[in-house]
Amino acid sequence: MNLPNKLTMLRIFLVPVFVFLLLNPLFGTANKWIVLGIFCVACFTDFLDGKIARKYNLITDFGKFMDPLADKLLVCSALICLIDLKLLPSWFVVIVIAREFVVSGLRLIAVDNGIVIAASWWGKFKTTFQMTLIILLLINLEELAVITAVIFWITLALTLVSMIDYLWKNRSVINQTK
After folding, report:
1. What is the CB neighbour count within 10 angstroms for residue 153?
2. pTM tops 0.90
3. What are the two backbone dihedrals, phi and then psi, of residue 170, each rounded to the nearest 5 degrees?
4. Domains and CATH numbers, the chain
5. pLDDT value of position 76
């Protein structure tokens, strides 16, 4: 269990803490900022674990599997909670989660055929914008409403473009299934 994998596990551990505090404001007005801090720490572990793993050649099979899973857990949990808090429409979250299922399914088919599908830049941009959108929604300031709306639509576009990109670049995987 190297440092990048420990950071990934920390992110997974932070998800239920984040969800619980987001939906149960135990700390009154400070709760919003505590939840935001937890989410930002979790996002930073995503950046940090990959950076450390690549820099020190600490890439493991565990990390290859668990890092994207931890990202999906964090982002999808936050998005679902934001529906409950009436800060996001459910159709948006359904599109995001559907994209995750499609890309994960494609990766499973590829692995079954001995092919590894690396993360694309579109997917990385998508994740960055999703996390930025969640941060803006957690802050929930009227002064940021226009910026939040712009980020919302960019996030939706990147979600769809990254899915299409994965499907197009890996169409041979779908055609080669056993």
Report:
1. 12
2. yes
3. -120, 25
4. 3-175 (1.20.120.1760)
5. 97
